[in-house]
Amino acid sequence: MTAPQTAADLADERLRLVATSTGHLLHTVAGLKPEALAEPSALPGWTRGHVLAHLSRNADSLVNLLDGARTGTDIPQYASDEARDQGIEDGAGRPLDVQLDDLRDSDERFAAAAAALAPGAWTAEVRHRTGCVFPAADIPWKRLMEIEYHHVDLAAGYSPAHWPELFAVAEFRRLAARLAGAEGLPAVELIADDTEDRARIGAGEPELTVEGPVRALTAWLSGRSDGDGFQVHRGGVQLTDGRAALPVLPPLG
């Protein structure tokens, strides 16, 4: 188990990243035109209003986990999956100023709940809505993921190229590890040409080698890019249309 002070330091570092990323998100949203919220986001079936409502309710759901860690009780992240979905639908059609206020207010509640935790509480185990159990010190990173990925999903000018390098590298490693040895996925060697990170996904010996910036690789692994711009080699020969040779990745789930 991670030492309490180490866990608290890790959480504090991640909370600073969350604060910075939230500031960028709020800046983007404040610059939207009111009618833009009803337009499609990059997520199938969701408008930009759905994405923003989800981000606000996600912050509140993580407050539940923080409160559970603080009190030593098992507080569900959401009352139910149905309640989660309904909260997003109910909030999707709200005006821009209401969405923006909700983003700010829910972020303040998240920050206050995090500040209320004693150092030792960051080692407490909490339960994600999917059932997986993880230490409370990971809650800030969960929030960072939601903000950075869904900021891109807003399709409002913020792209994977804007991701902080620390975030892109960590997510590249996490997503690649998740797909390492995945049955039914052809093996691919991934090389980040700007950070020298390397990973192998899929099962068997890789026939393809894919090179590109770490942010672009993370975008592809997370389903936010089709691989345009990669250098793709098969047997040491660079393919003219490397994107067509890339395997279809399984959904993140």
Report on this structure:
It is a single chain. Helix 2 packs parallel to helix 4 and helix 2 packs antiparallel against helix 5. The protein is built from eight helices and seven strands. The mean pLDDT is 96. By secondary structure, the chain is of the alpha+beta class. It starts with a helix and ends in an 8-residue tail after the last helix.
Short description:
The chain is an alpha+beta fold. It contains 8 helices and 7 strands, in the order ααααββααβββαββα.
Architecture blueprint of SSEs:
Layout: H1 4-30, H2 48-71, H3 81-92, H4 96-115, E1 125-127, E2 133-135, H5 139-153, H6 165-179, E3 186-192, E4 198-201, E5 203-212, H7 214-221, E6 231-234, E7 237-238, H8 242-245
Parallel strand pairs: 3-5
Antiparallel strand pairs: 1-2, 3-4, 5-6, 6-7
Label the overall shape.
Answer: globular
Rg, alpha carbons = 19 Å
Low-confidence stretches: none
Query: How many strands in all?
Result: 7
Mean of residue pLDDT?
A: 96
Tally of helical runs = 8
Alpha-beta classification? alpha+beta
Strand content: 5-15%
Share of helix, binned = 40-55%
What series of H and E elements makes up the topology?
Answer: HHHHEEHHEEEHEEH
Q: How do the strands of the widest beta sheet line up side by side?
A: 4-3-5-6-7
Largest sheet: 5 strands, mixed
Q: Report how far apart the termini are.
A: 27 Å
Keywords:
7 strands, 5-stranded mixed beta sheet, 8 helices, two-stranded antiparallel sheet, 49% helix, globular, alpha+beta, 253 residues
